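Record format v2
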Amino acid sequence: MAVFPIVKYGDPLLRKHLKEITDIPEILKLVDDMFETMYEEAGMGLAANQVGIDMNFAVIDISHAEEDEYPRIFINPEILDSTGRDDMEEGCLSIPEIRATIPRPERVLVSYLDEKGDYHEEWFDGLLGRVIQHEVDHLNGVFYIDHLTPAKHAIIDKRLAEIAETGAPSTGIVL
Ligand SMILES: [Zn+2]
């Protein structure tokens, strides 16, 4: 197993809509290393472009927080519908030392393929629903901080420029 370097804010691959996956065995070769990287970095989810891969899939594992959860793979996921609204603090391995409370739908209907290629449509809520929304954003070239108001976004602009340049901000910020 190997740990990938994390691609940071400022890299154009993080602004790209990733390529739809047709060859599932091809991504299964990458999945173990994706999980390994995510555990090494203490993340709950990791999108392929965060490790430099242009393929539309993400891995998620929130089992440290919810004991009946397990490592999941979402291939070509799409959010089909949503209900409610919830505020939750988010962070991102590609935007180190910044955290912000973000409003998002409370429940989302997600279509995806699993690692066997089987198609699912399933509602998710709570922490898992939140992490899925964060990762589906990544696969579409969107960051969680894109959901901040312009005034709040302005507070972190300088730190984002530092991350793009050096890989880390000079100071952390929690919004
Ligand atoms: Zn992220």
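Residues 18 and 139 are 6 Å apart (CA to CA).
The chain has a mean pLDDT of 96.
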